[in-house]
Write a structure and sequence with these properties.
Blueprint lengths: L3 H12 L3 E5 L8 H8 L6 H19 L4 E6 L1 H5 L2 H17 L3 E8 L3 H14 L4 E4 L5 H13 L3 E7 L6 H4 L9 H12 L12 E5 L4 H10 L5 E3 L23 E5 L1 H4 L9 H19 L4
Parallel strand pairs: 1-2, 1-8, 2-3, 3-4, 4-5, 5-6, 6-7, 7-8
Helix pairs in contact: 2-3, 3-5, 6-7
Length: about 300
């Protein structure tokens, strides 16, 4: 069994990239030529039309960005909004991305009591076949155990929400507990225990942390506190964070973190004329180079 984290860090080295491509299809933002093409065709209903447009858009990007991104992160909400057609597309995206050599992180943010968590883990890691999944720690250890079990025995991965990128995360995550620690610091402390038994050969565990790029000071603090924990970092690009903001999110060897970008890559064509797929590739390539430099590796 090869641990998820070993596959992830090997891909970082091989591709010289920390880029995760967020697959968050938003119909009004699709390139006009894609929308107009499918709006002119005869579909059963609007949901079928949108699913077909998403498929064309996503699959073109998957084929074009294999050199730039180490992983893809489909956000389940955008697929579930299309009902059964969208969920079928999500499963097809996971299979196609895997066949093209990407690691797949299901951005599901699941968390529930044990029996429900087991069903969520089976749905996304067993049936859909994602390599890793984002999880919400609100239910505590028993809500995470089905995901942790798959990390220990099947080589799967999970990323626990620790310090998220949205502005109002401070309402809960920055609250100070009686111990003097903030909520996100308490979760980080628990995470080290959850990671036991999922360690790969590169000094990292397959249980990671979601740490927002929009909180660079906290990211640096958490990097120091969690030396063997990989970070999945959202908030780059459209949410305002730059590569320079992330310099302290990498370890001393310039690794240990991967960075997600969704809108900035997917809809790069909106910033200028030209082919939409070429614009996405150029944005991803620029992000890849900027992050490699920020990690102190070029």
């Amino acid at each position: 069994m090869t641990h998820f984290v070993d596959r992830l860090l090997e891909a970082v080295e091989r591709k010289r990239s920390h880029v995760v491509l967020g697959l968050d299809p938003d119909y009004p933002l699709l390139p006009p030529e894609v929308r107009h093409k499918h709006e002119a065709l005869d579909y059963e209903d609007d949901l079928e039309m949108r699913a077909a447009a998403y498929r064309e858009f996503i699959f073109r990007l998957l084929c074009d960005l294999t050199d730039e991104a180490v992983a893809v992160k489909p956000q389940l909400a955008f697929y579930e909004a299309l009902g059964s057609r969208g969920y079928a597309l999500y499963e097809e995206v996971v299979a196609t991305a895997s066949s093209l050599g990407y690691l797949v992180i299901a951005d599901a943010k699941r968390g529930d009591i044990g029996s429900s968590a087991e069903a969520y883990a089976a749905a996304h890691l067993d049936v859909a076949g994602a390599d890793a999944i984002t999880v919400n720690p609100w239910f505590g250890t028993d809500g995470l155990e089905p995901f942790l079990a798959r990390a220990r025995t099947q080589g799967k991965g999970l990323f626990v929400l620790v310090k998220t990128s949205n502005p109002s995360s401070t309402e809960i995550q920055d609250e100070v507990l009686s111990s003097g620690r903030r909520v996100y610091e308490h979760v980080a402390g628990l995470l080290s225990g959850w990671a036991v038994g999922t360690e790969g050969t590169r000094g990292y565990a397959s249980v990671g942390a979601v740490v927002g790029a929009t909180h660079p000071a906290q990211a640096a603090e958490l990097r120091a506190a969690l030396p063997g924990i990989p970070f999945l970092i959202p908030g780059y690009g459209a949410q305002g964070a730059s590569a320079a903001d992330l310099a302290h999110a990498f370890d001393g060897a310039g690794t240990g973190s991967v960075v997600n970008s969704s809108r900035a890559i997917l809809y790069a064509y909106r910033s200028g004329p030209g082919d939409w797929a070429a614009a996405a590739k150029a944005e991803a390539a620029a992000m890849r180079a900027a992050l490699w430099r920020a990690a102190g590796r070029g």
